[in-house]
Q: What sequence folds into this?
């Protein structure tokens, strides 16, 4: 077996003048972040409460990942392209270097070249640099803007929902994010509106020694629906970088949110040097009856992933879904999965997780299904499959199932298989080339997840996985 | 069609084939027999291009439509696309890959290579069902994962189905009879006989004569210590059945 992986083509650095804070974290830094964004008072208070709580916490160590302690005082908590702290008013104000960066990443922001049918919010380090298609969305009453802008324009909406799904007391990284969050996207879909475009946020970490702490809040009002896509990349650097985001989704009566991620943060080199620490809290609340939240993720990057997109099924007849493909290579470590908390009557959830471990990486599924006494007739079905490539890769599955209602039905299936050189040889001996053989194996293994991916994403996401696999099977 | 000339080859630094010569013409069925360790499987692995096996010297020339090609210079998949097919002694289980989808991907890979139009899913389904019917096989074969949880007999029959779908010029069947009960052996043999015609050639690699009762070879070779020590017609196989190998190896 030959262990060589394709290069990470997003690993470039954009040279740009930035405004950044010195390293370190204290109340003054937090007040400065809040001041530079001219935030309403309640946000500053929220941050400080979170910070004070964070100081009392210890980093979690229960995940199946290993890394040296992080010195939180040795990080920078704010970095933004110069003079764009408010977010530019039009694309003309966006720095040329940044526009080129996004072009290079395949996310053109200029009017002429925009992706058809998708509105994009582009976040560069700590700030949103541009949000496209505002006008068209506005016609339908859809709000899609940067989080900072939402704090100014829609403070009441933000205040009503901020921290209601992921309270700052939720966990160590949620508290940290709540204290220092920089930018992210804000979405509000009014009653009965089917969002006419897919919404998308592209996160780019550029600056060195800077953490990215974005915060995304999506509210789908009664009977509305939205498709949201998220992509992310970062330069190749020898140092590890911290990314600790929070995503909160709220679906009211009959609303549907479909949230898809292709995560391709830099994962470090083959010796495990560098890469992003991706410590993310994503959670959706099916607040209303008959609401639905669906997470689809393709995780291919990050040195360490600690991420469990979850759904709280509060409304009766609400539904939560989690579809995941997580691929680890080199010495990457992933501990990822989901939580489905059934509260409402006749709530249903479905979990499909596919882990692929290559080289010396470790890939762990951790999932919780909790059926509370009130969840009469709740149902869950979970399927977790692991695929190992090569003798040194690791995979683990940790399902936690807690059922407190005898009318509930919970099913869990799991499997582990190994791709061997023999399988590749067998497929090749029938005329398939390396690419064809790998594609057949990958598409076979991940079929149930791939069919959930939005069209705009699926070709690129599948190709990304194929490339990483091809490099490792030989 | 196949010309193996003075082939020396082996695995893990050990020479196993020591100057082997073999000529196979279109329309012929050859049987290569020999005791364990004589080099039968090594020959099949060299012809298919298994990366663990090394050629030290000699040539393997494959001729189709009067064009000669040096097989040793081609990758495993190129050989397959040019019409070489190996029926594996131990067909590999490939979890997650649907049997019918695999067959279509392989078939179309060969079409692309040969400049023939590919088949869409609907047309291929019709084509595939014809092959199943031809081989008296159940359509349940199609929607299973490739060889996963197949019985020994089912795996071998699936190899024959692949052979039927891909229509190779040269088929090497490595111990296709191993692990089969008499009914399965009959089914597999019938399939091979139906697929044999004047334009293709089949090389049977087998330890036992019993396979040759069902598939009648034109030529029988006895392999020993990496060379062919005797060739003859089908009566040679019968002689081996009664006398064993020892008299040939002395």
A:
């Amino acid at each position: 077996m030959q262990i060589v992986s394709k290069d990470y083509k997003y690993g470039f650095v954009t040279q740009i003048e930035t405004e950044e804070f010195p390293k370190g974290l204290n109340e003054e830094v937090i007040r400065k972040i809040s001041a530079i964004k001219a935030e309403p008072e309640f946000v500053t208070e929220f941050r400080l409460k979170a910070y004070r709580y964070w100081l009392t916490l210890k980093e979690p160590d229960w995940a199946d990942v290993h890394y040296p302690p992080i010195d939180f005082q040795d990080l920078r908590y704010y970095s933004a392209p110069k003079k764009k702290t408010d977010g530019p008013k039009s694309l003309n104000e966006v720095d040329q270097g940044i526009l080129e960066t996004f072009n290079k990443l395949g996310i053109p922001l200029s009017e002429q070249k925009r992706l058809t049918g998708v509105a994009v919010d582009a976040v560069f380090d700590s700030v949103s640099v541009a949000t496209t298609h505002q006008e068209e969305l506005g016609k339908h009453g859809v709000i899609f803007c940067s989080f900072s802008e939402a704090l100014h324009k829609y403070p009441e909406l933000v205040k009503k929902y901020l921290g209601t799904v992921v309270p700052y007391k939720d966990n160590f990284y949620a508290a940290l994010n709540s204290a220092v969050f920089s930018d992210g996207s804000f979405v509000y879909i009014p009653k009965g509106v089917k969002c006419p475009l897919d919404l998308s946020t592209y996160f780019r970490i550029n600056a060195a020694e800077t953490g990215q702490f974005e915060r995304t809040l999506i509210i789908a009002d009664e009977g509305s629906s939205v498709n949201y896509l998220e992509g992310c990349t970062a330069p190749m650097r020898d140092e590890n970088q911290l990314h600790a985001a929070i995503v909160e989704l709220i679906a009211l009566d009959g609303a549907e949110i479909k949230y898809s991620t292709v995560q391709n943060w830099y994962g470090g080199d083959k010796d495990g040097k560098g890469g992003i620490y991706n410590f993310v809290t994503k959670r959706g609340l099916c607040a209303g009856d008959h609401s639905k939240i669906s997470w689809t993720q393709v995780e291919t990057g990050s040195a360490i992933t600690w991420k469990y997109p979850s759904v709280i099924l509060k409304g009766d007849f609400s539904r939560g879904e989690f579809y995941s493909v997580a691929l680890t290579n080199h010495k990457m470590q992933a501990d990822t999965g989901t939580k489905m908390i059934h509260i409402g009557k006749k709530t249903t959830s479905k979990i499909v997780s596919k882990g692929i471990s290559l080289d010396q990486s470790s890939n762990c599924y951790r999932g919780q299904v909790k059926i509370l006494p009130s969840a009469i007739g709740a149902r869950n079905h979970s399927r977790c499959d692991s695929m190992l490539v090569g003798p040194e890769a690791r995979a683990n599955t940790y399902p936690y199932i807690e059922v407190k209602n005898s009318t509930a039905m919970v099913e869990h299936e799991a499997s582990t298989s190994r791709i061997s050189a023999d399988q590749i040889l067998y497929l090749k001996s029938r005329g398939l080339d390396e690419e064809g053989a790998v594609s057949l194996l990958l598409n076979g293994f991940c079929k149930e997840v791939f069919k959930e991916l939005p069209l705009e994403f699926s070709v690129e996401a599948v190709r990304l996985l194929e490339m990483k696999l091809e490099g490792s099977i030989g | 069609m196949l010309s193996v000339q003075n082939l020396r080859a082996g695995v893990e630094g050990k020479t196993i084939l020591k100057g082997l010569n073999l000529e196979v013409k279109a329309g012929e069925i050859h049987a290569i027999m020999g005791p364990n360790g004589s080099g039968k499987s090594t020959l099949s692995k060299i012809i298919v291009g298994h990366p663990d096996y090394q050629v030290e010297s000699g040539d393997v020339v494959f001729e189709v439509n009067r064009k000669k090609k040096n097989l040793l210079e081609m990758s495993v998949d190129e050989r397959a696309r040019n019409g070489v097919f190996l029926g594996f002694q131990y067909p590999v289980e490939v979890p997650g890959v649907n049997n019918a989808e695999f067959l279509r991907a392989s078939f179309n890979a060969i079409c692309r290579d040969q400049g023939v139009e590919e088949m869409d899913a609907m047309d291929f389904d019709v084509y595939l069902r014809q092959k199943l019917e031809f081989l008296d096989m159940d359509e349940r074969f199609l929607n299973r994962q490739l060889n996963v949880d197949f019985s020994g007999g089912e795996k071998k029959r699936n190899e024959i189905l692949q052979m039927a779908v891909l229509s190779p010029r040269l088929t090497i069947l490595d111990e296709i009879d191993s692990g089969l009960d008499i009914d399965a052996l009959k089914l597999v043999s019938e399939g091979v006989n139906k697929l044999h015609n004047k334009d293709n050639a089949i090389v049977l690699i087998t330890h036992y004569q019993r396979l040759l009762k069902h598939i009648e070879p034109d030529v029988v070779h006895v392999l020993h210590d990496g060379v062919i020590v005797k060739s003859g017609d089908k009566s040679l196989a019968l002689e081996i059945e009664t006398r064993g190998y020892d008299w040939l190896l002395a």
In short: DSSP finds eight helices and ten strands in chain B. Chain B touches chain A at residues 48-51, 75-77, 79-81, 85-86, 88, 91-98, 101-102, 105-107, 109-110, 113, 145, 162, 166 (CB under 8 Å). The two ends of chain B are 32 Å apart (CA to CA).
